[in-house]
Amino acid sequence: MRIIKAALLGLGTVGAGVYEVIRHHQEQLQELVGAEVQVVAVLIQDENKEREVANDVLVTNDIKEILAIPGLEVIFESIVGAEPANRHVDEAIERGCHIITANKEMFAKHGDVLLEKARENDVQIGFEATVAAGVPVIRTIQQQLQLNKIERVQALLNGTSNFILTEMRQKQLPFAEVLKTAQSLGFAEADPTNDVEGIDAFYKIMILSQLIYGEQPEWATVDLKGIASVPEDEIYHSEGRYKHMAELKKVGNHVQASVQPVVIDDQHPLYSVEGVDNAVVLETSLAGTIMIQGPGAGSKPTASAMLEDFIHIFQTNKAAVLN
Ligand SMILES: NC(=O)C1=CN([C@@H]2O[C@H](COP(=O)(O)OP(=O)(O)OC[C@H]3O[C@@H](n4cnc5c(N)ncnc54)[C@H](OP(=O)(O)O)[C@@H]3O)[C@@H](O)[C@H]2O)C=CC1
Ligand SMILES: N[C@@H](CC=O)C(=O)O
C-alpha cells in the first residue's frame, strides 16, 4: 500500500492530539485516502522533555533534518507564534509539501502570501483549525456559501474566554481560578495573554475577513478588548450574559471589525452558547442567518479539524490520480 509520510511541527496539546488521532484511526484513514499515514518526524523545542512517540519517529529541534526527509508529503503545523512557523511553512511549500496548520497568529499575518505560494507550488494549505478549532467554519464558507454574499459575521471565537465567562457566572468563581482550569484542560495557550486580551479572537476574525472579503481591515482600526477588562462583579450580576464577541461586516468599500466583551440578552443567537463552545453567526444574502456551533478549543476538536483537512487534501489528490 502507498505510504503518505507526514511530519508534525509541535507536539503540545494540538500536536499530540494529531499524533494520537492518526495512530488510532489508521484503518479509516487508509480507506479514506487509499494510503497508510506514517508520522516520520516531529519538531519540538525542548529536547529534554519526555515524548510519547514511537521509537522510529525522528524527534528533533532542527527543521532542516525534517525538510530533508525524502518523500515527505505533508506537514501538520501546531507551534506557537508567527515565527519561526511562517519560515518553516514557506520552506516546506517550496519543497512540495502540503500544509495543515492550527496556528492562527501565523496564518492571520501571512496566510494570503502562503496561499499564493502554495498555488504556485501546486500544494494545498488546510487552515480549518485556525478558526474555532473543531467547528467547520472555513470549509462551510469556502464550499457551501459561494453564491451567497456574507453580509455580517458575529462570532464567539475564543474558547477560553467563553469558558471563563460561563464558569464565573454559573459558579461565581474568581477569574484567576477559572483561567487555571482552562489552562489545565488545554483550552488556553501556555501564555494566556492572547486569550484574555482578545488578541486570539482578533487573529481569527482577521482570517475570516481575508476568506470572506479577500482583505483585512487596517489592524489599528479594530476595536479590540478582552475579557480581562471586565470587572468580576459585572460578570456575576449583569442582566443578560457577557460574551466575548467578534464582529465583521463590509460598510461601503471598507471592512469593519470589532472584538470585545458585550452583554447580550436571551433573544440573541449567541446567548445560549456556553462553556468552551465557539459559534459563528453568518448573515447571508440567500440562505438567511446560519449559525455553526461546537468546541472551540482543546486537543481532540483541533486535531479533528486538522485530520479532516488532511482527508480533504488527499482525497482530492487521489481523485486527480485516478482520473
Ligand atoms: N490548544 C488549543 O485548543 C488550540 C491551539 N491552537 C494553536 O495551535 C498551536 C499549538 O497550540 P498548543 O498545542 O496548545 O500549544 P502547546 O504550547 O501545548 O505546544 C506547542 C508545541 O510547539 C512546540 N514549539 C513551540 N515553539 C516552537 C519552536 N519555535 N520551534 C519548534 N517547536 C516549537 C513546543 O515544543 P516543546 O514541546 O519542546 O515545548 C510544543 O511541542 C498554537 O499556534 C495555538 O494557537 C489552535 C486551535 C486550538
Ligand atoms: N486558546 C484558544 C485555542 C483555540 O484556538 C481558545 O481558547 O480559543
From TrEMBL:
According to the entry, every stretch annotated as the Homoserine dehydrogenase catalytic domain falls at 136-311
- Catalytic reactions of this protein: L-homoserine + NADP(+) = L-aspartate 4-semialdehyde + NADPH + H(+)
Identify the species of origin: Lederbergia ruris
The protein's name in its UniProt record: Homoserine dehydrogenase
Pathway connected to this protein: Amino-acid biosynthesis; L-methionine biosynthesis via de novo pathway; L-homoserine from L-aspartate: step 3/3; Amino-acid biosynthesis; L-threonine biosynthesis; L-threonine from L-aspartate: step 3/5
Q: Name one Pfam family in it.
A: NAD_binding_3
> Record's family?
Belongs to the homoserine dehydrogenase family.
Sorted UniProt keywords: Amino-acid biosynthesis, Methionine biosynthesis, NADP, Oxidoreductase, Threonine biosynthesis
Which Gene3D superfamilies does this chain map to?
A: Dihydrodipicolinate Reductase, domain 2, NAD(P)-binding Rossmann-like Domain
- The segment(s) forming the Aspartate/homoserine dehydrogenase NAD-binding domain are 10-128
Q: What is its EC number?
A: 1.1.1.3
